[in-house]
Amino acid sequence: MRVGLNTLFLLPGEVGGSETYVRETVSAMPQGAAQWVVFTNFENDGWFRTLFADRSDVSFQPLNVRASCRPLRILAEQLWLPRLAKRAGLDVLWSPGYTSPVRLVAPPSVPSVLDVQYRRFPEDFSPIARRALDGLLQWAGHTAAAWITLSDFSRRELAAAFGWPLERIHVTPLAAGADFCRHGSPADVEALQRHGIERPYLLCVAHTHPHKNVEALIAAHGRIAASRPHHLVIVGRARRGEAACRAALSCHPHPERVRRIEWVSATDLAALYRQADWFVFPSRYEGFGLPVLEAMAAGAPVITTRCGAIPEVAGNAALYADSPEAESLSAVLTEALSFLPAERQKVIEDGHRRAQQFSWKRTAELTLDALRAAGQYRRGP
Description:
By secondary structure, this protein is of the alpha/beta class. It is built from 15 helices and 13 strands.
């Protein structure tokens, strides 16, 4: 099978879990299971060539377009990519970044649509971006042979939102990477020192998109700060919800105990998970919720919400807030920080077992199954 991989959307270091999804899924594909043609942009071409330097089954087709200029990137995807995909003799084109060529008929098109966040939380997007994304998804839905998503929750959301047939929406859950499955080492302490982190601390990993609800966690931390010594460490870049986070910080009784870090390497992030007293994920909406699995794999006990696909991922291995509001988050934080060591250890062990139920190998297998099925759907009635 000859598979095209549309990475025109991918801007390294900027697209969060989508980057991890593409990198880990393709890396887990067994050699020879498919021949890959990776369509790259100006910013990610070198990144992909380095990543797959030892893969004889991967070739590259660069398009000299910048992902950072979204209008031109979308034009290239709609006008230029279909011609290149047809010329490459592909059996299927996989577009893992939501959008795909609208008029592509040959080869069959399989977009990954991870959620409908733009509809549930429109404030995450500009009005123009929201309308463009909705139009592209609606139009591409008429020509896609199948779709891939990450959870049963998202599968149902997509079917309800667009009327896509459930049997053509394939679920390929994610997994924690190898960096998060290793035991701790003295280097963990060095990682904390490198980023100026003091123990004890609570950890949150999220860009400040409105749906990530980071401002509620800041407010919840402020409620318990007088009675607990814990710092709050937030790893993530500023996004459209940053103003709300700054407002929450301005009301925090001890803002100096909130540490903001834009980015850390996967190795350092694993160390931050392992050394945290609790990992807190306060999101109001998730199509999957990969940081929850990463934290569990690394050995951090998890506090989170029952929003979106999170319970599907965390199962019974996390503590849940009654709601994503600051009051409920502070209540579950107070409960968790009162746990005896044996109680906290049980949450860690339950989380570790839960994380082991997911693997990138399985993600890759399910993705290949979906791509193979696309040709059958195209030939069907």
